[in-house]
Amino acid sequence: MRETPDDAGDASDADDPMIGVELAPEHPVERMVELGTLAEAVGFDTLFVSHHYNNRDAFSVLSRLAAETDAARLGPGVVNPLEFHPATLASKVATLDEASGGRAVFGVGPGDPSTLRNLALADERGLRPVLEAFKTAQRLWAGERVDGGDTFDAADAGLNYEPPQGADLPVYVGGEGPHMCRMAGKHADGLLFNGSHPDDLAWAREQVERGTADCPDARGGFDLAAYAAVSVAADAEAAREAARPPVAFIAAGAAPPVLDRHDIDPELAGDIGDRISAGEFSEAFELVTPAMVDAFCMAGDVEAVAERTAAVLEHADSLVVGSPLGPDLDEALRLASKAADRATE
Asked: Does residue 30 belong to any structural domain of this protein?
C-alpha cells in the first residue's frame, strides 16, 4: 500500500514514483479544498489543479490548498504561457512554493486549443513559448533578471524574493506531440503526458528518451508521468458514461499521430472541438464514441482501472489520475487510490 501523508514524510521525494491527481476547478473553491484535502488523506502525493479561463482560477484554489494540506506537492496542471506573461507566471508559482513551504510543482504546457480559440490565442500555441516560459522562470527563481525572448518582451525583469526550492523547483511539461515530448526530455524534470493507454505511453517513452539522451547528466532523473483521464465507480457503465466530458476535450485536442494510433476519425474529433469552442458541450459529449473512451480514459470499476494502470506503468514512471474521476467525486478519489495501490503492489 502507498503511504499516506501522515506517515509518508516528504511527499516530494524524487526517489518515490508520483501518484498524483488532477482537480478540475469546475466547482466552488470550498468544494475544491474538500476534494484536495480528501485526495491527500487517501494517499495522493501530488495535487495538480487544471487551468482553463472558463473555470475557477487555478492559483486561487492552489493557494487555499497550500494552507489546508500538509505534505502533498501542489501545482498548476497545466497552465499555459499565452494567457500570462512568463515573469508573472514565474512569480505565481514562486508564491505558491513559498506559501506551501517548498511543495510547489510547475506544470506548464501549450494550452487547450478548444478554449484558447475563444481567446484568439490558438494559433500562438507551440513549443517555443512553453520552453521560454519555464527557462525564464528558472532564471528568475535563481535571482537573475531577464530581458525577454523570442516569444515575449521584458526589460530587466526580476523577482524581489526567491522561492524555497529556488531554481530547483520541479518543472513538468504538459504535452503529447513528439517535439514537445522530446523537448521535455531534454530540458524539464518531467513530462505530463496526456495519455491513458499503454500504447501511447510506450510511444511517449521513445520520444522522451530521444530528448533525455541530449540532456546534461547533472540535471538528474526524469519522470514520465501518465496524465490519465480516469473514471472509476462500482458501476462500470456509470463510470464509462461519466468519462464522456474529458474524453471529448482530449479527442478534440489530440495530436494527429495520437488519433491515427487509435484509428479515431480526425473529422469527428474536429467536430467535437468545434462544438466545445461554441459552448455546445452536451452536443460535443454525445459525439464521443466507445472507442474514444477506450483510447483516452481508464474507465470502469476498480479492477478494470487497476489493470489498465498496471499496463500503463509498464512504460510510465508515475501516474496522475485525471478528471472526471467518476460519477461521485469523493468515492472516485477513494476508489482511484485503491486502484493505484492494487496496480503498484
From this structure: yes
Structural domain that includes position 121: 1-175
- Which CATH number do you get for residue 44? 3.20.20.30
Residues 6+ apart with CB under 8 A from 39: 21, 23, 47, 72, 333
Contact criterion met (CB below 8 Å) for 63 and 99: yes
- Residue type present at position 36: G
**At CA 107, angle to CA 32 and CA 315, rounded to 5?**
105
Full-model pTM: 0.90
Give the model confidence (pLDDT) of 282-330 as tens digits. 999 999 999 999 999 999 999 999 999 999 999 999 999 998 899 999 9
Domain count, the chain: 1
Q: Categorise residue 59: left if φ over 0, alpha if ψ from -120 to 50, beta otherwise.
A: alpha
Give Cβ neighbours of residue 218 (< 8 Å, ≥ 6 apart): none
Report helix angle 198-212 to 178-187, nearest 10: 50
Residue 45 resides in a domain: yes
